[in-house]
Amino acid sequence: MADQFDVVVIGSGPGGYVTAIRASQLGFKTAIVERSELGGICLNWGCIPTKALLKSGEVYEQLDHLRDYGLSVEKRGFDFDGIVQRSRKVAAQMNSGVTFLMKKHKIEVVQGTARLEKGSPAPTVVVGSRKLTAKHVILATGARARTVPAIGLEPDGERVWTYREALVPKAAPKSLVVVGSGAIGMEFASFYRALGSEVTVIEMMPRILPVEDEEISKTARKVFEKRGIKFRVPANVKKLTKSKTGVSLDIEADGKAETLNAEVCIVAIGIVGNVEDLGLEALGVKVEKTHIVTDKHGATGVPGLYAIGDVAGPPWLAHKASHEGVHCIEHIAGLRPTNLTSPIPGCTYTTPQIASVGLTEAQAREQGLDPKVGRFPFRVNGKAVAAGEVDGLVKTIFDGKTGALIGAHMVGHEVTEMIQGFALAMTLEATEAEIQATVFPHPTMSEAMHEAALDAYGRVLHL
Questions:
Q1: pTM for the structure as a whole
Q2: Out of 319, 323, 327, 442, which one is annotated catalytic?
Q3: Which domain holds residue 204?
Q4: pLDDT class for 340, splitting at 50, 70, 90?
Q5: pLDDT tens column, 372-418
Q6: Same structural domain for residues 214 and 231?
Q7: Does residue 410 belong to any structural domain of this protein?
Q8: Do 317 and 370 fall into the same domain?
Q9: If pLDDT is split at 50, 70 and 90, which confidence band does 147 have?
Q10: What's the chain's average pLDDT?
Q11: Nearest Cα to 267, choosing from 150, 171, 372?
């Protein structure tokens, strides 16, 4: 009887543990299965420790500009091991927090690797010698870094890294090449450049940060280049060769062959879902491009089996996984679940930061809309000037027919803390008139959000 549950969640990342908490709140007897550390990749090897590293890099880089603030310091330097250890302590603290939450909500934590077998009313979850039966099983197994062993893009822990190796190296490399300019690639490029590494980023798409609005990615690239990051865009890696002292990458950029040399290569070319060795094939679960196919509530088509988060497909974001998990369990409980189509903001924690929600300008035009576009640069925002953080802008996109806010995009200092204002506005279906009528506090960088909304309709005040 001890191994009978109402809900079993497999995977304890932000999707899994949040789902388990909500299940417990709804009165379900819940278990969560984790093969490694509670909190999953995000808390232990992703979102949280990378932000700790990035903060260290940001503070260190600011030391170059102390004179701009009328300050001085006698000696500038860093303890790389100290930087890494701080990030690990932050991750450990968050892991402890999840452990506490599991106890608080009386969720049984089952340590080990799960495999599914046919069962009723839902598949049986086998973990070692235990067999967990439940009415509902929710897969939240996440994803891992994509590699391409055929051309040498495979981690070895020494010369070729994924995000995991990049978090805990013995020393900061003097030079590195980052393959992939999405959020993960650019965050590590930004961090190591802040510590003085020579950084080159390779991107096969026509521009960096390819999922972002084109104007935003172009603006970000200019600031990154000002910081000394080099780019090869568009470019394809043909082969990576390792030696005792570094790596050589044979690439093709703009139709020309080139060889790049560096101490280390970071592979950041996307992720693949963790679908192997779960027993999905025997159950008849449909998998496409390493991701489990589900309906809008997370159901897989196999009775009692659901999937949420990264393993269920893009966007591969922790907050999207949590949101999906809550929606899924509330649907199971027969409630009117949270709105699954709520706008999902995306954030990149580089220097400068990038944040966006909704449609890009190009997407709006492709959908046949008549977008009204507004922009406001931080260089004329009083708080940004006072803080010495003038790079970047806010861009708003409204539906020309209805006035609805359909997209917002930012690049600049701490914009990841501002984008939620636009996400909330979109969730509440705010129009340009309502945003323009909102009082924004002064002096704040958020005033640029207001001005960008005004600019879309020719009413900008400070430009």
A1: 0.95
A2: 442
A3: 149-269
A4: confident
A5: 999 999 999 999 999 999 999 999 999 999 999 999 999 999 999 99
A6: yes
A7: yes
A8: no
A9: very high
A10: 96
A11: 150
Structure tokens at 376: 């406001």
Q: Do 137 and 173 belong together in one domain? A: no
Is the model's pLDDT at 38 over the cut of 80? yes
Q: Among 250, 269, 288, give the residue marking a domain's end.
A: 269
Q: What's the rounded Cα separation, in Å, for the pair 368 and 400?
A: 11
CATH of the domain at 439: 3.30.390.30
Query: What CATH number is attached to the domain comprising 130?
Result: 3.50.50.60
CA-CA distance, 151 to 153, in Å (whole number)? 6
442 is catalytic: yes
For 53, 127, 188, the CA distances from 46, given in Å and listed in that order, are 11, 26, 11
* CA-wise closest residue to 220 among 201, 241, 237, 236: 201
Is residue 303 exposed (0-12), middle (13-18) or buried (19+ Cβ within 10 Å)?
middle
CA distance 117 to 131: 9
181 burial level (CB within 10 Å; 0-12, 13-18, 19+): buried
Structural domain includes residue 341? no
- Neighbouring CB atoms inside 10 A of 5's CB total 24
Structure tokens belonging to residue 401: 């027919």
Question: How many domains does the chain fold into?
Answer: 3
The neighbour count for residue 100, using CB atoms within 10 Å, is: 11
The reply to whether 347 falls in a domain is no
Structure confidence by residue, pLDDT tens digits, 56-109: 999 999 999 999 999 999 888 999 999 999 999 999 999 999 999 999 999 999
Burial class (CB in 10 A: 0-12, 13-18, 19+), 22: buried
Looking at the structure, tell me whether residues 67 and 83 fall in a common domain.
yes
Give the pLDDT of residue 284: 96
HSE of 127 in the Cβ direction (CA atoms, 13 Å)? Answer: 20
Q: How many CA atoms lie within 13 A of 257 on its CB side?
A: 4
**In terms of domains, do 134 and 24 share one?**
yes
Whether 116 is in a domain gets the answer yes
Please give the average per-residue pLDDT across 327-349, as a whole number: 91
My answer on whether 305 and 436 are in the same domain is: no
Dist CA 432 CA 434 (whole Å) = 5
In this structure, the answer to whether residues 209 and 137 fall within a common structural domain is: no
Tokens of 414: 């701490």
